[in-house]
Amino acid sequence: MALDSGLLARRWVPFSSERSQLRRKFGRIRITPMALFWTLIILILVIPILLFLSVAFSPRLMSQGHQWFTLASFKPVFSGSYGIALLHSLLLGIVASLGATVIALSMAWLVLRTDTPARIIWNSTIFALFLAPSYLIALGWQRLFEQRGVLEIMGFYVEPIRNLLYGPVGICMVLMVKGLPFAYLVIANAMRGLGEEFEQAVRVHGGSRVEAFKVMANLLTPSIFSAMAIVFAEAISDFGVASTLSSVGHFSVATYQLYQGINSIPVNFPVSAATSITLLSLVLLAIFAQNRALRGRSFRTLSGRTRPATITKLSFFGKFSTSTYIIVLLLMVLGIPIFGAVSASMLQGLGSLLSHYSINFSNYSRVLHSRFLRNPLIYSTQMSLITATLSVGLAAIASKVLTSIKPSKSKKFVDFFLLAAVALPGIVFAIGYIFTYNLRFINDLGLHIYGTSFLLALAYSANALPSTSRSLVGNMGQIQESMMDAARVHGSKPARAWIDVTMPLIARPLLIAWLLTFSGTLLELPVSELLYPPGSPPVAVGIELSLAGFDYGGGTAIEVLSILWALVVVGIAFFLFNRFVPPGWKRLGKLK
Amino acid sequence: MNFATIKKSLAIGASLVFASVGLSAQAAHAAVITINLYEAIGYAPDEIKAFNASQSMYQVVDVGGSTGPLLAKVAAEGTNPQWGLFWADGDTWAAAADTAGNLAPLNFKPTYSSLGKRLAPKNNAYAITGSTVMVAGLYNAAKMTNPPVPLQAMLRSGYKGQIGMNDPNISGPTYPFIAGLMNQLGSEDAGKNYLLALKKNGLVINDKNGPTIHALEIGQINMGLVQNTAAIAEVIKFTAAPVAGFKPTIVYPGRPTLMPSSLAIDAKRPAAEIAGAQAFIKYVLSPAGQSILASTDATQNSDVLCYPSIVGTTPNKYVPAMPKAYQIIDPYKWGPLQSEVDAWFTANIRTK
Known about the structure:
The structure holds 2 protein chains of 2 kinds. Chain A is an all-alpha fold. Chain A has 2 domains: 72-295 and 309-360, MetI-like (MetI-like fold); 363-592, MetI-like fold (Orthogonal Bundle). Chain A has helices at residues 21-27, 33-54, 80-113, 119-131, 134-145, 150-153, 159-165, 168-192, 197-204, 209-219, 221-236, 240-249, 255-263, 269-294, 316-345, 362-367, 374-402, 409-423, 426-437, 440-444, 453-476, 481-489, 494-522, 526-531, 539-548, 552-580, and strands at 9-11, 29-31, 347-348, 358-359. In chain A, the strands form 2 sheets. In chain A, strands 1-2 form a two-stranded antiparallel sheet. A two-stranded antiparallel sheet of chain A has the order 3-4. By secondary structure, chain B is of the alpha/beta class. Chain B folds into 2 domains: 32-129 and 260-304, Periplasmic binding protein-like II (D-Maltodextrin-Binding Protein, domain 2, 3-Layer(aba) Sandwich); 136-255 and 325-350, Periplasmic binding protein-like II (D-Maltodextrin-Binding Protein, domain 2, 3-Layer(aba) Sandwich). Chain B is built from 13 helices and 10 strands. Chain B has helices at residues 3-28, 44-54, 67-77, 92-99, 114-119, 174-185, 188-200, 209-217, 228-240, 271-284, 287-295, 331-334, 338-350, and strands at residues 33-39, 58-64, 85-89, 127-134, 136-140, 163-166, 204-206, 223-226, 248-251, 257-265. The model of chain B is unreliable at 1-13 and 15-29 (pLDDT under 50). At the A-B interface, helix 12, helix 13, helix 19, helix 24 and helix 25 of A face helix 1, strand 2, helix 3, helix 4 and strand 7 of B.
């Protein structure tokens, strides 16, 4: 496959004829940022994924069996029950991604384009939403609706809702809630880059508010599809939520078989790889839908002349109804996980409000001295800082490739592998890393990076890259290339032109992407568990070990403290951004 | 220096960082003999700390996690393993590794108790550090006055919808329970039929011990079939802070299975590391290593609630008497059946 020929390496003509032969030889090759980008993409994304998938056909290649070529691992995949599970996963992905995107679009419009009073609460809680682990979301819903749960104790008849919750409806809802903050950030970032001129044009030509909204939604198509693609991929790779909420409803999903292969003794990676290939076929469907929708259209709306958007003044009824909508949504997406956290970490007694309970902080005071908290949290924070910085750098380039107008193989290549990394559960991704970086011949070269913080940072970055890139796609797709061209014509070098022209336009989205990655990495479990350096467990592993020792209260308390710490970092980052970044960099998204 | 040269230098610098991280990791191994211990045992960090303090030749490094992901890590490492020691609940994994020729047998005979001798492999391929019971029937004595003790009693209509268990695909210790059911009922098919009958009688499936015990606490079920350490932890909790209407009590339905904790050495490590691994196991099974079981606070670390396997070891004060009747299953026979049984459970019990 030809990857952007010309970008990988360029011939360089030396100025001095006195250079040594050796220097001249090396001097002919110039490493470009794109060359570095492609090298990293191949090393951290493509090879680990391909090596894992290869064991479905060739178990012997990675010492996972005796056959060089076989299709036997696909046998369970072609069973009727697996077909149904795969269909379930597809439907879950579609409904969760559609739901999350529609809600996110409405929220972005209300928060960024209207004067609804509740928008302030939403803006200050959005990162808390992102940090809420799906475990706490599912737990909160369970505690509310379970038999003798909070609502039944309060006298509500909730059995019909409970029956819905423990099945596809409940799973979809939790996945939708989990995907909502990401979808919101992607769409809101892009909406900030849309000036008021488009809405005004519609209104001047006699269009209604609804028609203006439709035009705006159309211009946001790349970000909408970006959000949908990630929520879809996250939903089809989910295992935890589905297994928690399907225990009563007996609802099967495709990842169930994948985990069965991994949990077997001996471990059966070929079957897990075969299952993963079917999940990736669903990703291809998502990419196909996205390409069909975006084909041949330009969404470049961000230029030096972009005008600040105007806030729509709502009537009293408008303010009341939209604020009610935001508050109800917040109660659902944030209140319920908080309730789950309180229930699991502060409620003493039977873990419900049934009888004889008390609420206190004893678990919190206890875990402050736990070996699972302090050092693991410091280590995770360091790793998250490195990962966020590396990922945002790579994502800026990846999003540029993804938003290129010309259809190219490199664009499809990056798109597929980025989504594949999301659609494959984290544990599979980590196993691909072990396959790749624990190869004997790599060790023989003197490279022992498996079991080091270095490899963990690379794996975290690769894991975060899809969502980080997608969060920038909306903005990168809006930037008009002519601005960079103008800067270059006026003598700026590429890096200088990028800092002077592009950076001010995407500074805020870059900050948000950085925080998104930081927050997502801090509590990441599957990759951490398999790749952490011996003796240095990240905080997510500490939480897991606490829960494994039946210390549910202590484990959840560590989780809550880690979330609060992440929110502190988010607050500091915003403070520094607002205090020190040049005013021009903060202009994007400013309202009149 | 022009811009191209700077970029080239940066690229070379990045390559050097790549290489140096790997090399420094290698250099760190040179000073003392380092052995990675992959473990899913709550008190393993205390054993490591005590062992490292007791000598200066070897450094055991902790790689803690859950049993499933750790076994996946070992399998992924394939022919280039990085673990020196593996310690987790169960012995089917150890038997599978032994069958594949991946274990270095112990070079000494542990002073096993009579129970330890029954659990230990005849070829001394790995060490048994203790055992727990799969399963204990944890029931609410305030509501269930007459818990089912024989297996067939659980199928009575009086217990319809009152019994819950874990999913063996997610809860590692649940497979030995199912294998034990099959063993005591005479065949794999008999065990499957029993589970189908239990399901017909309203069996509630949750992921693992935590959710099953919560279902018991809120009265969704009145008996949870869970690992005995989880059950004991619940009894300890509510003995210390009683709640009216909830009295967790343990009964052992049928003939429960004793599930050993196994500690094994990777045969593919260099001889010096294997020697260090042998020394570590010797330490864990020594009076000093065994004393950790009694001295650790079981309310914070439930893995010490096991039945010791070494002569003269004092169990933790919270460990109750052993079940009157119990069985020990052959891991070399039942281990290889796990994939098929788990898949059957998914298709017929969990998702149907």
